[in-house]
Amino acid sequence: MFTRRTLLGAAAALSLMAHGALAQDKLYVPLISKGFQHQFWQAVKAGADKAAGELGVEVTFEGPDNESQVDKQIDMLAAALAKKPAAIGFAALDSQAAIPLLTQAKEAGIPVIAFDSGVDSDIPLATAATDNVAAAALAADKMAELIGGSGKVAVVAHDQTSRTGVDRRDGFVNEMKSKHPEVEIVAIEYGGGDHLKSTEITKAILTANPDIKGIFGTNEGSAIGVVNGVRESGAKVVVVGYDSGKAQTDAIREGLMAGAITQNPVGIGYETVKAAVAAAKGEKVEPKIDTGFFWYDKTNIDSPEIAAVLYE
């Protein structure tokens, strides 16, 4: 014989089961980024959250404290995969180190979408990113123009292990060699994307090369470090950057930075989630999702086209 309490308990249990089923029906897509502290990554997260809201999926976004913590990023990737997500977005700090875990993801049927920085593997079904080689080549062309087509320049890069670090370095260096042979690259140094470390590197470059004309910083932290190093040294050097957080836009408005490449970080986050959801549903995704880039400086920083891809 069923009592009122028994019936109420059964109803509650069924309600919980139904709630659980609904929760399980909502696709879960974690995004593991290269960092979290830079405004760039916050803008990527904003794009991911926008797509999650529109598509009705659950998205989480995390990354290590700084962009040198490869081991921590790998731990985050392992933890995310252990939750058996519908798909995963991954921006590799080291394009080789994550391959064993990504192989496990593939074997488990979890689609991988790379974003910002690709992986040296065919495991990711798509990569949502800027064409970093072309963007850095444009930075080289602008730098050469700004220094009068000849002279010494240097590169302060964020790393030599991620796809973005390699592509931006090589895109800049190779464009200079092929199109601007009278420009000499006297140093390529790596500051891990940390603005304090990049500041010290910049000051050392300026001390060793008092006649240097320009320095290129390959991401937000690198570029701000270059600006700070130049300012603290009192040097007259053309600074070209990459990315477009408030510190860089302020530096351009103040004349401390000549100009920079801006990506479309909100678009990167949005397209990553969109591709991940499509892949989770078995739909075809384009292997390369080009999210675009622009050169901006004092002359166009307030134009609608540029303002739309700047972030604070």
Automatic annotation (TrEMBL):
Record-annotated Periplasmic binding protein domain positions: 31-284
Signal peptide as annotated in the record: 1-23
Keywords: Signal
Localization (cell): Cell envelope
Keyword Hydrolase: no
GO molecular function: carbohydrate binding
One cellular-component annotation, GO: cell envelope
Keyword flag Lyase: no
Short name of any one Pfam family annotated for the protein: Peripla_BP_4
Organism superkingdom: Bacteria
Family stated for the protein in its record: Belongs to the bacterial solute-binding protein 2 family.
The protein's name: Monosaccharide ABC transporter substrate-binding protein, CUT2 family
